Amino acid sequence: MTSSAPATIAPYGTWPSPISAARVAAGATPMSSLMLGGADGSDIFWLAGRAAEAGRNTLLRYHGATTEELTPAPFNVRSRVHEYGGGAYVVDGDTVYFSHFKDNVVHKMVAGEAPVAVTRPGKQRFADFAVDRARQRLIAVRELHGDDEHAQPANTICAISMTGVETVLAQGADFYSSPRVSPDSRSLTWISWDHPRMPWQGTTLWLADFNDDGTLSTAVRIAGGADESICQPEWSPDNLLHFVSDRSGWWNLYRLCADRQRVEGLCPMAAEFASPHWTFGNSMYGFRSASEIICTYIDQGVSRLARLLPGSGKLEAIANPYEEIRELRVGNGYIAMLAGGPAIPMELARIDFTEDGVEILAQSIEDLPDQADLSIPTSISYPSANGRTAHAFYYPPRNQNVRAPEGGKPPVITIGHGGPTGMTVNTLNLKIQYWTSRGFGVLDVNYGGSTGFGRAYRDLLKGQWGIVDVEDCVAGAEALVARGLADGERLIIRGGSAGGLTTLCALTFHNVFKAGASYYGVSDLKGLDQDSHKFESHYNEYLIAPKAQADAIYAQRSPINHTDKLSRPMIFFQGLDDKVVPPQQSQMMVEALSKRGIPVEYVELEGEGHGFRKAENIIRTLEAELRFYQTIFKLNHA
To answer: Where are its TM segments located (predicted)?
Structure first.
Protein backbone atom coordinates (compact mmCIF):
# COMPACT_ATOMS: atom_id res chain seq x y z
CA MET A 1 0.00 0.00 0.00
CA THR A 2 1.36 3.40 -0.97
CA SER A 3 1.89 5.84 1.88
CA SER A 4 -0.06 9.12 1.88
CA ALA A 5 2.10 10.75 4.57
CA PRO A 6 4.32 13.71 3.57
CA ALA A 7 7.78 12.63 2.47
CA THR A 8 10.66 13.11 4.89
CA ILE A 9 13.53 15.20 3.57
CA ALA A 10 16.93 13.56 4.07
CA PRO A 11 20.27 13.60 2.25
CA TYR A 12 20.93 10.90 -0.30
CA GLY A 13 22.52 7.82 1.23
CA THR A 14 20.88 8.33 4.64
CA TRP A 15 17.28 7.43 3.91
CA PRO A 16 15.53 5.13 6.38
CA SER A 17 14.57 2.09 4.35
CA PRO A 18 11.88 -0.59 4.68
CA ILE A 19 14.32 -3.05 3.05
CA SER A 20 16.62 -4.26 5.81
CA ALA A 21 19.59 -6.56 5.32
CA ALA A 22 17.62 -9.24 7.15
CA ARG A 23 14.80 -8.80 4.66
CA VAL A 24 17.27 -9.17 1.79
CA ALA A 25 18.63 -12.39 3.30
CA ALA A 26 15.19 -13.78 4.04
CA GLY A 27 13.95 -12.93 0.59
CA ALA A 28 16.95 -14.21 -1.32
CA THR A 29 15.83 -17.74 -2.12
CA PRO A 30 17.79 -18.86 -5.18
CA MET A 31 15.75 -20.89 -7.66
CA SER A 32 17.43 -23.08 -10.26
CA SER A 33 17.52 -26.37 -12.14
CA LEU A 34 14.01 -26.60 -13.54
CA MET A 35 12.79 -30.09 -14.50
CA LEU A 36 9.49 -31.73 -15.46
CA GLY A 37 8.26 -35.17 -14.46
CA GLY A 38 5.61 -37.13 -12.63
CA ALA A 39 3.51 -39.95 -13.95
CA ASP A 40 1.94 -37.79 -16.68
CA GLY A 41 4.65 -35.15 -16.97
CA SER A 42 2.63 -32.47 -15.21
CA ASP A 43 4.82 -32.17 -12.11
CA ILE A 44 7.36 -29.35 -11.97
CA PHE A 45 10.61 -29.72 -10.02
CA TRP A 46 13.20 -27.11 -9.04
CA LEU A 47 15.92 -26.38 -6.51
CA ALA A 48 15.58 -23.74 -3.82
CA GLY A 49 18.52 -22.39 -1.85
CA ARG A 50 17.94 -22.13 1.89
CA ALA A 51 20.04 -19.28 3.32
CA ALA A 52 18.79 -20.10 6.82
CA GLU A 53 20.20 -23.62 6.41
CA ALA A 54 23.74 -22.63 5.43
CA GLY A 55 22.72 -22.34 1.79
CA ARG A 56 21.48 -25.93 1.44
CA ASN A 57 19.81 -26.72 -1.90
CA THR A 58 16.55 -28.60 -1.47
CA LEU A 59 14.42 -30.16 -4.19
CA LEU A 60 10.81 -28.98 -4.47
CA ARG A 61 7.95 -30.37 -6.52
CA TYR A 62 4.75 -28.72 -7.64
CA HIS A 63 2.22 -31.53 -7.79
CA GLY A 64 -1.48 -30.94 -8.39
CA ALA A 65 -1.97 -27.61 -6.67
CA THR A 66 0.54 -27.98 -3.87
CA THR A 67 4.29 -27.62 -3.40
CA GLU A 68 6.19 -30.23 -1.42
CA GLU A 69 9.79 -30.57 -0.31
CA LEU A 70 11.33 -33.85 -1.44
CA THR A 71 14.78 -33.65 0.14
CA PRO A 72 14.66 -32.71 3.82
CA ALA A 73 17.83 -31.81 5.71
CA PRO A 74 20.58 -32.84 5.69
CA PHE A 75 20.28 -33.65 1.97
CA ASN A 76 21.87 -30.96 -0.18
CA VAL A 77 21.16 -31.36 -3.90
CA ARG A 78 24.30 -29.90 -5.35
CA SER A 79 27.30 -30.88 -7.46
CA ARG A 80 30.82 -29.47 -7.64
CA VAL A 81 31.83 -30.80 -11.06
CA HIS A 82 33.83 -27.99 -12.68
CA GLU A 83 33.50 -26.42 -9.18
CA TYR A 84 30.46 -24.40 -10.27
CA GLY A 85 28.23 -27.46 -10.49
CA GLY A 86 24.65 -27.42 -11.75
CA GLY A 87 22.86 -30.40 -13.24
CA ALA A 88 22.71 -32.01 -9.80
CA TYR A 89 19.57 -34.07 -10.38
CA VAL A 90 17.35 -35.62 -13.04
CA VAL A 91 13.73 -36.77 -13.02
CA ASP A 92 12.30 -39.93 -14.57
CA GLY A 93 8.57 -40.07 -13.99
CA ASP A 94 8.13 -40.28 -10.21
CA THR A 95 11.77 -41.17 -9.62
CA VAL A 96 14.51 -38.63 -8.92
CA TYR A 97 18.27 -39.19 -9.02
CA PHE A 98 20.42 -36.57 -7.33
CA SER A 99 23.93 -35.80 -6.09
CA HIS A 100 24.31 -35.14 -2.36
CA PHE A 101 26.85 -32.36 -1.86
CA LYS A 102 28.49 -33.60 1.33
CA ASP A 103 29.87 -36.86 -0.07
CA ASN A 104 29.07 -36.59 -3.83
CA VAL A 105 27.06 -39.81 -3.61
CA VAL A 106 24.26 -40.24 -6.16
CA HIS A 107 20.92 -41.15 -4.58
CA LYS A 108 17.70 -42.58 -6.00
CA MET A 109 14.41 -41.36 -4.58
CA VAL A 110 10.99 -42.73 -5.48
CA ALA A 111 7.97 -40.60 -4.62
CA GLY A 112 6.96 -41.12 -1.00
CA GLU A 113 10.10 -43.04 -0.07
CA ALA A 114 13.42 -42.09 1.51
CA PRO A 115 16.47 -41.57 -0.74
CA VAL A 116 18.69 -44.60 -1.27
CA ALA A 117 22.37 -44.38 -2.26
CA VAL A 118 23.25 -45.66 -5.74
CA THR A 119 26.97 -44.91 -5.86
CA ARG A 120 29.58 -45.28 -3.14
CA PRO A 121 31.56 -42.52 -1.45
CA GLY A 122 34.83 -41.82 -3.17
CA LYS A 123 36.82 -39.30 -5.15
CA GLN A 124 34.25 -39.06 -7.93
CA ARG A 125 31.70 -36.30 -8.55
CA PHE A 126 28.73 -36.48 -10.94
CA ALA A 127 26.59 -33.94 -12.78
CA ASP A 128 24.41 -33.41 -15.85
CA PHE A 129 22.50 -36.68 -15.56
CA ALA A 130 20.54 -38.36 -18.34
CA VAL A 131 18.31 -41.41 -17.89
CA ASP A 132 19.06 -44.35 -20.18
CA ARG A 133 15.79 -46.23 -19.69
CA ALA A 134 16.50 -48.97 -22.22
CA ARG A 135 19.56 -50.05 -20.23
CA GLN A 136 18.24 -49.16 -16.77
CA ARG A 137 21.07 -46.82 -15.92
CA LEU A 138 22.13 -43.21 -15.67
CA ILE A 139 24.59 -41.43 -17.89
CA ALA A 140 26.45 -38.45 -16.44
CA VAL A 141 29.55 -36.32 -16.50
CA ARG A 142 32.02 -37.80 -14.01
CA GLU A 143 34.90 -35.89 -12.48
CA LEU A 144 37.38 -38.24 -10.80
CA HIS A 145 39.80 -36.70 -8.31
CA GLY A 146 42.99 -38.34 -7.12
CA ASP A 147 44.82 -38.32 -3.82
CA ASP A 148 46.91 -35.33 -4.85
CA GLU A 149 44.64 -32.34 -4.33
CA HIS A 150 46.85 -30.25 -6.63
CA ALA A 151 46.51 -32.65 -9.58
CA GLN A 152 43.78 -32.00 -12.11
CA PRO A 153 40.87 -34.46 -12.04
CA ALA A 154 39.89 -36.66 -14.98
CA ASN A 155 36.58 -35.88 -16.69
CA THR A 156 34.58 -38.45 -18.66
CA ILE A 157 31.10 -39.41 -19.79
CA CYS A 158 30.16 -42.30 -17.52
CA ALA A 159 27.28 -44.77 -17.21
CA ILE A 160 26.06 -45.64 -13.70
CA SER A 161 24.14 -48.86 -13.15
CA MET A 162 21.48 -49.13 -10.47
CA THR A 163 23.99 -51.13 -8.41
CA GLY A 164 26.55 -48.35 -8.63
CA VAL A 165 28.85 -49.84 -11.25
CA GLU A 166 30.53 -47.08 -13.26
CA THR A 167 31.43 -47.59 -16.93
CA VAL A 168 33.29 -44.95 -18.93
CA LEU A 169 31.64 -44.26 -22.30
CA ALA A 170 33.73 -41.35 -23.57
CA GLN A 171 37.11 -40.09 -22.44
CA GLY A 172 40.21 -38.28 -23.60
CA ALA A 173 38.98 -34.69 -23.62
CA ASP A 174 39.63 -32.28 -20.79
CA PHE A 175 35.93 -31.50 -20.27
CA TYR A 176 32.51 -32.95 -21.06
CA SER A 177 28.91 -31.84 -20.76
CA SER A 178 25.37 -32.46 -21.93
CA PRO A 179 25.09 -36.23 -22.49
CA ARG A 180 21.62 -36.72 -24.00
CA VAL A 181 19.99 -40.02 -24.98
CA SER A 182 17.80 -40.02 -28.10
CA PRO A 183 14.08 -40.76 -27.63
CA ASP A 184 14.49 -44.11 -29.43
CA SER A 185 17.39 -45.00 -27.05
CA ARG A 186 19.70 -45.77 -29.97
CA SER A 187 22.07 -42.78 -29.80
CA LEU A 188 23.94 -40.53 -27.42
CA THR A 189 25.14 -37.00 -28.03
CA TRP A 190 27.47 -34.90 -25.88
CA ILE A 191 29.80 -31.91 -25.90
CA SER A 192 33.53 -31.83 -25.17
CA TRP A 193 36.31 -29.26 -25.14
CA ASP A 194 39.99 -29.02 -24.25
CA HIS A 195 42.40 -26.62 -22.62
CA PRO A 196 43.05 -23.78 -23.11
CA ARG A 197 39.51 -23.05 -24.32
CA MET A 198 36.53 -22.19 -22.19
CA PRO A 199 33.17 -23.58 -23.38
CA TRP A 200 32.05 -20.22 -24.80
CA GLN A 201 35.17 -20.12 -26.98
CA GLY A 202 35.12 -23.51 -28.67
CA THR A 203 33.43 -26.86 -28.05
CA THR A 204 32.69 -29.95 -30.14
CA LEU A 205 29.36 -31.76 -30.50
CA TRP A 206 29.61 -35.55 -30.82
CA LEU A 207 27.16 -38.28 -31.78
CA ALA A 208 27.50 -42.05 -31.36
CA ASP A 209 25.17 -45.04 -31.49
CA PHE A 210 24.90 -47.56 -28.67
CA ASN A 211 26.31 -51.04 -29.19
CA ASP A 212 24.40 -54.06 -27.94
CA ASP A 213 26.52 -54.17 -24.78
CA GLY A 214 25.78 -50.52 -23.93
CA THR A 215 29.14 -49.16 -25.06
CA LEU A 216 29.35 -46.61 -27.86
CA SER A 217 30.29 -46.94 -31.49
CA THR A 218 32.91 -44.61 -32.92
CA ALA A 219 31.82 -41.04 -32.23
CA VAL A 220 31.18 -38.67 -35.13
CA ARG A 221 31.84 -34.95 -34.89
CA ILE A 222 28.67 -33.06 -35.77
CA ALA A 223 29.68 -29.44 -35.25
CA GLY A 224 32.00 -27.18 -33.34
CA GLY A 225 35.72 -26.71 -32.99
CA ALA A 226 38.31 -24.31 -31.64
CA ASP A 227 36.36 -21.21 -32.66
CA GLU A 228 32.73 -22.37 -32.49
CA SER A 229 30.80 -22.68 -29.24
CA ILE A 230 28.10 -25.36 -29.13
CA CYS A 231 25.48 -25.35 -26.35
CA GLN A 232 22.45 -27.33 -25.21
CA PRO A 233 22.09 -30.30 -27.54
CA GLU A 234 18.55 -31.69 -27.37
CA TRP A 235 16.56 -34.33 -29.27
CA SER A 236 13.24 -33.57 -30.88
CA PRO A 237 10.43 -36.13 -30.40
CA ASP A 238 11.20 -37.53 -33.88
CA ASN A 239 14.88 -38.15 -33.01
CA LEU A 240 16.42 -35.16 -34.75
CA LEU A 241 19.40 -33.65 -32.94
CA HIS A 242 19.12 -29.90 -32.25
CA PHE A 243 21.74 -27.61 -30.75
CA VAL A 244 22.85 -24.00 -30.37
CA SER A 245 25.95 -22.70 -32.17
CA ASP A 246 27.59 -19.28 -32.41
CA ARG A 247 29.13 -19.96 -35.86
CA SER A 248 27.31 -16.86 -37.17
CA GLY A 249 28.55 -14.66 -34.35
CA TRP A 250 25.35 -15.25 -32.37
CA TRP A 251 24.18 -18.31 -30.41
CA ASN A 252 21.43 -19.50 -32.76
CA LEU A 253 19.47 -22.74 -33.16
CA TYR A 254 20.50 -25.48 -35.59
CA ARG A 255 19.58 -29.09 -36.25
CA LEU A 256 21.17 -32.15 -37.78
CA CYS A 257 19.14 -33.36 -40.74
CA ALA A 258 17.69 -36.87 -40.76
CA ASP A 259 20.43 -38.13 -43.09
CA ARG A 260 23.02 -37.02 -40.49
CA GLN A 261 25.00 -35.42 -43.30
CA ARG A 262 23.89 -31.80 -43.10
CA VAL A 263 23.33 -29.15 -40.45
CA GLU A 264 20.77 -26.41 -41.04
CA GLY A 265 20.05 -23.16 -39.26
CA LEU A 266 16.49 -22.77 -38.00
CA CYS A 267 16.10 -19.05 -37.39
CA PRO A 268 19.21 -16.95 -38.02
CA MET A 269 19.09 -13.65 -36.16
CA ALA A 270 21.19 -11.23 -34.11
CA ALA A 271 20.10 -12.67 -30.77
CA GLU A 272 21.36 -15.23 -28.24
CA PHE A 273 19.50 -18.52 -27.77
CA ALA A 274 21.98 -19.68 -25.11
CA SER A 275 24.02 -18.48 -22.18
CA PRO A 276 27.63 -19.31 -21.23
CA HIS A 277 28.27 -22.74 -19.76
CA TRP A 278 29.32 -21.86 -16.24
CA THR A 279 26.98 -24.48 -14.81
CA PHE A 280 25.41 -27.65 -16.16
CA GLY A 281 21.82 -28.12 -17.22
CA ASN A 282 20.99 -24.77 -18.83
CA SER A 283 17.75 -24.97 -20.81
CA MET A 284 16.53 -22.19 -23.09
CA TYR A 285 14.40 -24.17 -25.53
CA GLY A 286 12.22 -27.27 -25.70
CA PHE A 287 9.77 -29.09 -27.98
CA ARG A 288 6.01 -28.76 -27.98
CA SER A 289 6.03 -31.23 -30.88
CA ALA A 290 8.36 -32.40 -33.63
CA SER A 291 7.32 -29.36 -35.66
CA GLU A 292 7.21 -26.67 -32.94
CA ILE A 293 9.93 -25.33 -30.61
CA ILE A 294 9.30 -23.08 -27.64
CA CYS A 295 12.35 -20.92 -27.00
CA THR A 296 13.68 -17.92 -25.18
CA TYR A 297 16.36 -15.68 -26.62
CA ILE A 298 18.25 -12.61 -25.43
CA ASP A 299 17.87 -9.45 -27.48
CA GLN A 300 20.11 -6.55 -26.35
CA GLY A 301 20.28 -7.94 -22.83
CA VAL A 302 16.54 -8.66 -22.48
CA SER A 303 14.84 -12.07 -22.78
CA ARG A 304 12.03 -12.79 -25.24
CA LEU A 305 9.72 -15.82 -25.38
CA ALA A 306 8.67 -17.25 -28.73
CA ARG A 307 7.29 -20.13 -30.74
CA LEU A 308 9.57 -21.31 -33.55
CA LEU A 309 8.36 -23.41 -36.48
CA PRO A 310 11.53 -25.12 -37.78
CA GLY A 311 10.01 -25.99 -41.14
CA SER A 312 9.49 -22.36 -42.13
CA GLY A 313 11.80 -20.53 -39.71
CA LYS A 314 8.82 -18.51 -38.53
CA LEU A 315 9.23 -17.00 -35.06
CA GLU A 316 6.11 -15.89 -33.18
CA ALA A 317 6.22 -13.92 -29.93
CA ILE A 318 4.48 -15.36 -26.85
CA ALA A 319 3.12 -12.66 -24.56
CA ASN A 320 4.55 -12.66 -21.04
CA PRO A 321 5.53 -10.08 -18.41
CA TYR A 322 9.21 -11.06 -18.04
CA GLU A 323 12.48 -9.51 -19.17
CA GLU A 324 14.71 -12.33 -17.93
CA ILE A 325 13.87 -15.96 -18.68
CA ARG A 326 16.64 -17.94 -17.03
CA GLU A 327 15.36 -21.46 -17.68
CA LEU A 328 12.55 -22.94 -19.73
CA ARG A 329 11.00 -26.39 -19.97
CA VAL A 330 8.15 -27.50 -22.23
CA GLY A 331 5.56 -29.93 -20.90
CA ASN A 332 2.42 -31.51 -22.27
CA GLY A 333 0.30 -28.45 -22.97
CA TYR A 334 2.31 -25.92 -20.97
CA ILE A 335 5.58 -24.03 -20.51
CA ALA A 336 7.37 -23.83 -17.16
CA MET A 337 9.89 -21.02 -16.65
CA LEU A 338 12.16 -19.49 -14.08
CA ALA A 339 11.75 -15.83 -14.95
CA GLY A 340 11.68 -12.30 -13.59
CA GLY A 341 11.50 -8.63 -14.48
CA PRO A 342 12.28 -5.16 -13.12
CA ALA A 343 9.36 -5.28 -10.66
CA ILE A 344 9.10 -9.08 -10.59
CA PRO A 345 11.44 -11.29 -8.55
CA MET A 346 12.67 -14.57 -9.95
CA GLU A 347 9.64 -16.84 -9.94
CA LEU A 348 8.39 -20.17 -11.20
CA ALA A 349 5.75 -19.47 -13.81
CA ARG A 350 3.47 -21.69 -15.85
CA ILE A 351 1.91 -20.70 -19.18
CA ASP A 352 -0.85 -22.92 -20.54
CA PHE A 353 -1.04 -23.22 -24.32
CA THR A 354 -4.85 -23.10 -24.28
CA GLU A 355 -5.34 -20.24 -21.80
CA ASP A 356 -4.28 -16.63 -21.53
CA GLY A 357 -2.14 -15.35 -18.70
CA VAL A 358 0.61 -16.62 -16.44
CA GLU A 359 0.18 -18.79 -13.34
CA ILE A 360 2.72 -18.07 -10.59
CA LEU A 361 3.68 -21.24 -8.73
CA ALA A 362 6.53 -19.96 -6.53
CA GLN A 363 8.53 -16.79 -5.94
CA SER A 364 12.07 -16.27 -4.77
CA ILE A 365 10.89 -13.36 -2.60
CA GLU A 366 7.83 -13.98 -0.47
CA ASP A 367 7.80 -10.63 1.34
CA LEU A 368 7.82 -8.15 -1.54
CA PRO A 369 8.44 -4.46 -0.84
CA ASP A 370 5.78 -1.96 -1.73
CA GLN A 371 5.92 -1.22 -5.45
CA ALA A 372 6.30 2.47 -4.64
CA ASP A 373 9.64 1.72 -2.94
CA LEU A 374 11.08 -0.14 -5.93
CA SER A 375 13.58 1.45 -8.27
CA ILE A 376 12.76 0.44 -11.84
CA PRO A 377 15.90 0.42 -13.99
CA THR A 378 16.42 2.16 -17.28
CA SER A 379 18.47 0.39 -19.96
CA ILE A 380 21.16 2.79 -21.13
CA SER A 381 23.94 2.70 -23.71
CA TYR A 382 26.82 5.15 -23.68
CA PRO A 383 30.16 5.81 -25.40
CA SER A 384 33.26 4.24 -23.89
CA ALA A 385 36.94 4.14 -24.78
CA ASN A 386 38.18 3.59 -28.34
CA GLY A 387 34.77 4.23 -29.90
CA ARG A 388 33.00 1.37 -28.12
CA THR A 389 29.41 1.47 -26.94
CA ALA A 390 28.75 -0.06 -23.52
CA HIS A 391 25.48 -1.10 -21.92
CA ALA A 392 24.08 -0.90 -18.39
CA PHE A 393 20.97 -0.72 -16.24
CA TYR A 394 20.61 2.47 -14.21
CA TYR A 395 18.57 2.37 -10.98
CA PRO A 396 17.72 5.81 -9.53
CA PRO A 397 17.25 6.30 -5.78
CA ARG A 398 13.67 5.47 -4.81
CA ASN A 399 11.75 5.58 -1.52
CA GLN A 400 8.15 6.71 -1.33
CA ASN A 401 8.56 8.17 2.16
CA VAL A 402 11.78 10.14 1.63
CA ARG A 403 13.13 12.69 -0.78
CA ALA A 404 16.44 14.49 -0.97
CA PRO A 405 16.92 18.23 -0.49
CA GLU A 406 16.66 20.32 -3.64
CA GLY A 407 19.86 20.50 -5.64
CA GLY A 408 21.45 17.37 -4.22
CA LYS A 409 22.83 14.56 -6.30
CA PRO A 410 23.05 10.96 -5.14
CA PRO A 411 26.10 8.81 -4.51
CA VAL A 412 26.11 6.10 -7.17
CA ILE A 413 27.35 2.54 -6.84
CA THR A 414 28.70 1.06 -10.08
CA ILE A 415 28.61 -2.73 -10.21
CA GLY A 416 30.90 -4.89 -12.34
CA HIS A 417 29.40 -8.37 -12.67
CA GLY A 418 31.32 -11.58 -12.14
CA GLY A 419 32.46 -14.06 -14.70
CA PRO A 420 33.74 -11.99 -16.36
CA THR A 421 32.07 -13.91 -19.20
CA GLY A 422 28.51 -13.39 -18.06
CA MET A 423 25.89 -10.68 -17.92
CA THR A 424 23.81 -8.69 -15.53
CA VAL A 425 20.02 -8.68 -15.80
CA ASN A 426 17.24 -6.41 -14.59
CA THR A 427 15.19 -8.90 -12.58
CA LEU A 428 14.08 -7.49 -9.22
CA ASN A 429 17.00 -7.92 -6.84
CA LEU A 430 16.63 -6.88 -3.20
CA LYS A 431 20.39 -6.42 -2.89
CA ILE A 432 20.12 -3.55 -5.37
CA GLN A 433 16.91 -2.21 -3.83
CA TYR A 434 18.68 -2.20 -0.45
CA TRP A 435 20.85 0.60 -1.84
CA THR A 436 18.34 2.53 -3.93
CA SER A 437 15.86 2.69 -1.06
CA ARG A 438 18.56 4.36 1.04
CA GLY A 439 19.21 7.07 -1.51
CA PHE A 440 22.01 5.53 -3.57
CA GLY A 441 21.86 5.25 -7.34
CA VAL A 442 23.09 1.98 -8.86
CA LEU A 443 24.67 1.46 -12.28
CA ASP A 444 24.81 -2.24 -13.17
CA VAL A 445 27.14 -2.58 -16.15
CA ASN A 446 27.23 -5.06 -19.01
CA TYR A 447 30.76 -4.12 -19.99
CA GLY A 448 32.53 -5.29 -23.16
CA GLY A 449 32.99 -9.03 -22.71
CA SER A 450 29.47 -9.59 -21.42
CA THR A 451 27.18 -12.15 -23.00
CA GLY A 452 23.78 -11.37 -24.46
CA PHE A 453 25.14 -9.07 -27.18
CA GLY A 454 26.79 -11.51 -29.60
CA ARG A 455 30.26 -13.01 -29.92
CA ALA A 456 31.96 -9.84 -31.14
CA TYR A 457 30.90 -8.00 -27.98
CA ARG A 458 31.85 -11.02 -25.86
CA ASP A 459 35.31 -11.11 -27.43
CA LEU A 460 36.00 -7.46 -26.62
CA LEU A 461 37.51 -8.79 -23.39
CA LYS A 462 39.89 -11.15 -25.19
CA GLY A 463 43.31 -10.14 -23.89
CA GLN A 464 41.74 -7.06 -22.30
CA TRP A 465 40.48 -8.16 -18.88
CA GLY A 466 41.17 -5.40 -16.41
CA ILE A 467 41.09 -2.81 -19.19
CA VAL A 468 37.86 -2.92 -21.26
CA ASP A 469 35.64 -3.86 -18.31
CA VAL A 470 37.19 -1.09 -16.22
CA GLU A 471 36.94 1.50 -19.00
CA ASP A 472 33.25 0.72 -19.48
CA CYS A 473 32.53 1.05 -15.74
CA VAL A 474 34.47 4.34 -15.59
CA ALA A 475 32.70 5.66 -18.68
CA GLY A 476 29.32 4.70 -17.24
CA ALA A 477 29.92 6.57 -13.99
CA GLU A 478 31.17 9.59 -15.91
CA ALA A 479 28.10 9.50 -18.15
CA LEU A 480 25.82 9.65 -15.10
CA VAL A 481 27.74 12.62 -13.71
CA ALA A 482 27.48 14.38 -17.07
CA ARG A 483 23.71 13.76 -17.11
CA GLY A 484 23.34 15.19 -13.62
CA LEU A 485 22.37 11.85 -12.12
CA ALA A 486 25.36 11.30 -9.82
CA ASP A 487 27.57 13.17 -7.37
CA GLY A 488 31.04 12.98 -8.90
CA GLU A 489 32.66 13.14 -5.45
CA ARG A 490 30.72 10.13 -4.16
CA LEU A 491 31.16 7.52 -6.85
CA ILE A 492 31.55 3.95 -5.59
CA ILE A 493 32.46 0.75 -7.40
CA ARG A 494 31.84 -2.75 -6.15
CA GLY A 495 32.02 -6.26 -7.54
CA GLY A 496 32.50 -9.91 -6.73
CA SER A 497 35.00 -12.42 -8.10
CA ALA A 498 35.95 -11.15 -11.59
CA GLY A 499 33.96 -8.01 -10.74
CA GLY A 500 36.31 -7.64 -7.80
CA LEU A 501 39.26 -7.36 -10.21
CA THR A 502 37.29 -4.72 -12.15
CA THR A 503 36.75 -2.88 -8.88
CA LEU A 504 40.39 -3.05 -7.82
CA CYS A 505 41.71 -2.02 -11.24
CA ALA A 506 39.29 0.89 -11.45
CA LEU A 507 40.45 2.19 -8.08
CA THR A 508 44.13 1.53 -8.78
CA PHE A 509 44.52 2.81 -12.33
CA HIS A 510 41.77 5.47 -12.52
CA ASN A 511 40.68 8.35 -10.31
CA VAL A 512 36.94 8.47 -10.98
CA PHE A 513 35.72 6.31 -8.09
CA LYS A 514 36.17 7.47 -4.52
CA ALA A 515 35.62 4.17 -2.65
CA GLY A 516 35.02 0.52 -3.35
CA ALA A 517 34.00 -2.91 -2.12
CA SER A 518 35.59 -6.17 -3.25
CA TYR A 519 33.72 -9.42 -2.68
CA TYR A 520 36.23 -12.30 -3.03
CA GLY A 521 37.87 -10.30 -5.81
CA VAL A 522 40.94 -11.15 -7.87
CA SER A 523 43.96 -8.99 -7.03
CA ASP A 524 46.85 -11.20 -8.21
CA LEU A 525 46.49 -12.68 -11.69
CA LYS A 526 49.62 -14.78 -11.31
CA GLY A 527 48.34 -16.19 -8.04
CA LEU A 528 44.97 -16.86 -9.62
CA ASP A 529 46.66 -18.97 -12.29
CA GLN A 530 48.62 -20.91 -9.69
CA ASP A 531 45.64 -21.56 -7.41
CA SER A 532 42.85 -22.00 -9.94
CA HIS A 533 40.88 -25.22 -10.31
CA LYS A 534 40.89 -27.22 -13.53
CA PHE A 535 37.88 -25.57 -15.21
CA GLU A 536 39.43 -22.10 -15.12
CA SER A 537 43.11 -23.02 -15.07
CA HIS A 538 43.64 -21.66 -18.60
CA TYR A 539 40.93 -18.98 -18.58
CA ASN A 540 43.53 -16.22 -18.30
CA GLU A 541 45.06 -17.28 -21.62
CA TYR A 542 41.89 -15.91 -23.21
CA LEU A 543 41.40 -12.97 -20.86
CA ILE A 544 45.04 -11.86 -20.59
CA ALA A 545 47.56 -13.66 -22.81
CA PRO A 546 49.01 -17.12 -23.56
CA LYS A 547 51.18 -18.37 -20.73
CA ALA A 548 54.45 -17.64 -22.56
CA GLN A 549 53.64 -13.92 -22.69
CA ALA A 550 51.49 -13.68 -19.59
CA ASP A 551 53.92 -12.87 -16.77
CA ALA A 552 54.77 -9.35 -17.89
CA ILE A 553 51.10 -8.50 -18.46
CA TYR A 554 50.11 -10.06 -15.14
CA ALA A 555 52.59 -7.78 -13.43
CA GLN A 556 51.20 -4.74 -15.24
CA ARG A 557 47.53 -5.45 -14.51
CA SER A 558 47.51 -7.09 -11.09
CA PRO A 559 46.45 -4.51 -8.49
CA ILE A 560 48.59 -6.22 -5.84
CA ASN A 561 51.68 -4.98 -7.72
CA HIS A 562 50.50 -1.37 -7.77
CA THR A 563 49.21 -0.66 -4.29
CA ASP A 564 51.22 2.58 -4.33
CA LYS A 565 48.68 3.88 -6.85
CA LEU A 566 45.65 2.84 -4.78
CA SER A 567 44.63 5.58 -2.39
CA ARG A 568 40.87 5.06 -2.16
CA PRO A 569 39.13 3.56 0.89
CA MET A 570 38.08 -0.05 0.44
CA ILE A 571 36.22 -2.84 2.19
CA PHE A 572 36.94 -6.50 1.42
CA PHE A 573 34.71 -9.54 1.97
CA GLN A 574 36.18 -13.03 1.72
CA GLY A 575 34.98 -16.59 2.30
CA LEU A 576 37.67 -18.67 3.96
CA ASP A 577 36.64 -21.82 2.04
CA ASP A 578 36.90 -20.15 -1.38
CA LYS A 579 38.62 -22.49 -3.87
CA VAL A 580 38.16 -20.17 -6.86
CA VAL A 581 39.74 -16.99 -5.47
CA PRO A 582 41.71 -18.04 -2.36
CA PRO A 583 41.61 -15.81 0.75
CA GLN A 584 45.25 -14.72 0.39
CA GLN A 585 44.22 -12.63 -2.63
CA SER A 586 42.14 -10.34 -0.41
CA GLN A 587 44.46 -10.59 2.56
CA MET A 588 47.46 -9.31 0.59
CA MET A 589 45.54 -6.24 -0.56
CA VAL A 590 44.28 -5.45 2.94
CA GLU A 591 47.77 -5.72 4.38
CA ALA A 592 49.24 -3.47 1.67
CA LEU A 593 46.59 -0.78 2.17
CA SER A 594 46.87 -0.93 5.95
CA LYS A 595 50.62 -0.35 5.78
CA ARG A 596 50.02 2.80 3.76
CA GLY A 597 47.36 4.13 6.12
CA ILE A 598 44.52 3.92 3.59
CA PRO A 599 41.12 3.36 5.27
CA VAL A 600 40.43 -0.33 4.80
CA GLU A 601 38.20 -2.98 6.37
CA TYR A 602 38.37 -6.74 6.00
CA VAL A 603 35.49 -9.13 6.73
CA GLU A 604 36.32 -12.83 6.53
CA LEU A 605 33.62 -15.48 6.73
CA GLU A 606 34.13 -19.02 7.94
CA GLY A 607 32.25 -21.76 6.11
CA GLU A 608 31.70 -19.67 2.99
CA GLY A 609 33.17 -20.34 -0.44
CA HIS A 610 32.98 -18.41 -3.70
CA GLY A 611 29.73 -16.58 -2.98
CA PHE A 612 27.92 -16.26 0.33
CA ARG A 613 24.99 -18.54 1.09
CA LYS A 614 24.32 -18.16 4.82
CA ALA A 615 21.66 -15.67 5.91
CA GLU A 616 23.73 -14.28 8.76
CA ASN A 617 26.60 -13.55 6.39
CA ILE A 618 24.40 -11.87 3.80
CA ILE A 619 23.16 -9.59 6.59
CA ARG A 620 26.63 -9.02 8.01
CA THR A 621 28.21 -8.05 4.70
CA LEU A 622 25.45 -5.67 3.58
CA GLU A 623 25.36 -3.84 6.90
CA ALA A 624 29.13 -3.58 7.06
CA GLU A 625 29.31 -2.21 3.53
CA LEU A 626 26.64 0.41 4.26
CA ARG A 627 28.39 1.54 7.45
CA PHE A 628 31.66 1.80 5.54
CA TYR A 629 30.24 4.12 2.88
CA GLN A 630 28.40 6.24 5.44
CA THR A 631 31.61 6.64 7.40
CA ILE A 632 33.80 7.40 4.39
CA PHE A 633 31.39 9.96 2.95
CA LYS A 634 30.34 11.32 6.36
CA LEU A 635 26.71 10.48 5.83
CA ASN A 636 24.45 10.63 8.84
CA HIS A 637 23.54 7.11 9.91
CA ALA A 638 19.89 6.38 9.29
So the answer is: none
